[in-house]
Amino acid sequence: MSEEEGKWRLLNPLSIRFSQPRIAPHYRDGHLIDETAAEVDDMPLDEGGASVATSTDAASGAPPYDAVLVPPFPGIRVISWLPKIRRPDGEAERDEHGDQKLGKRAWFALDNRRLHSLQCAAAKRWPRRCCAVVRCIEEVPGSTIRELRKFRTTTEGRCVEIGVRTGETQNWSWQEVAPAAASEAQIEPEGLFAEDLWDASQWAPRALALASGCDPAALSAAKREPAVTASSQHVGQVAAAATVARGENGNRDHPPRKGCLSGCPGTGWQYVDPSNNVQGPFPLAKMRLWHQHGFFYAKLPMRCDPSDAFMPFSELFPEGIEPFRDFVLRRAATEPHRAG
């Protein structure tokens, strides 16, 4: 996996902080965050992980978790960060020398609504110790200014306000939905860098396949061939549901084609203009800028790599996936494009 895409690791959602002070009560597709939390499933860690050689840049030994959460959305992005200490009005606090005060390093989410759903699911399973497949990134990706604006929490990310308008929000933390005896002090400390966390491909390959949008069966076969159990059959059902959630509908007139969600590449993007000529390749930053200006329409043929098939713009980014930000749906080309 490239450095741009990050490293897939296992991390307790209750150890992750919110980077934003407020989140909307629903996702872009209209689903409520509370309803989505109820759709989060779980599965056990892969028992065969102990027989696989541990990556040199990941934690050794067996993970201390009882279950891996399986949400109906792609894995969240997290970053190890030293947060600024902010006053209730959002302004950064400064010391006697005028320097900004920093809090303790912790894992922060760039996908805050998804974190809420994961924390709800993990808290309701207490005292079972849950983890989720996360993508650890080394630095803030994409448009730096836009991403950094998310880091404006005034509580060091321990809680978040839920609502659309200021003054009409409700403060929330995972302790509200956990058993009364649960507390942050009872959570086992986890590493603050990707190298200190457990490799998701070793201990949760099927959950990783769902989080990254790949075919679980193919990923498992590449790692090892697991025995068919009731649990693995259930995983297949979850995978099918996740595929539908990612835009592969069951329309009989347009049968779903095999594809895989992948991290958006930094370059190689092409589209077919109205004269049927291929334009590009262009860098990701330029595509993102053009999209922000509304240049792309739903049926515009596009791809992110010359080896891929051209697909309508609306299919490249299924419902719930922000274009040119996290993931893109890719399908291998079966024949070269013929220019007009």
What's the Cα radius of gyration?
21 Å
The chain-level mean pLDDT equals: 78
Largest sheet data:
8 strands, mixed
Topology pattern, helix = H, strand = E: EEEHEEEEHEHEEEHHHHEEEHEEHE
Number of helices: 9
How would you describe this structure in keywords?
alpha+beta; 340 residues; 8-stranded mixed beta sheet; 9 helices; 4-stranded antiparallel beta sheet
Short description:
The protein is of the alpha+beta class and 340 residues long.
Provide structural commentary:
This protein is of the alpha+beta class and 340 residues long. It has nine helices and 17 strands. The strands form four sheets. Strands 1, 2, 4, 5, 6, 7, 8 and 11 form an eight-stranded mixed beta sheet that branches. A four-stranded antiparallel beta sheet has the order 14-13-15-16. Strand 9 and strand 10 (170-172) form a beta hairpin. The longest helix is centred in the last third of the chain and has 16 residues, at 230-245. The two termini are 36 Å apart. Mean pLDDT is 78; it is low at 141-145 and 215-257.
Helices and strands in order, then pairings?
Elements: E1 7-11, E2 16-18, E3 22-23, H1 33-38, E4 41-43, E5 67-70, E6 76-81, E7 106-109, H2 112-124, E8 130-136, H3 144-148, E9 160-162, E10 170-172, E11 198-199, H4 200-203, H5 205-212, H6 216-223, H7 230-245, E12 260-263, E13 269-272, E14 278-282, H8 284-292, E15 301-303, E16 311-312, H9 313-316, E17 327-330
Parallel strand pairs: 2-7, 3-9, 5-8, 6-8
Antiparallel strand pairs: 1-8, 1-11, 4-5, 6-7, 9-10, 12-17, 13-14, 13-15, 15-16
Helix pairs in contact: 5-6
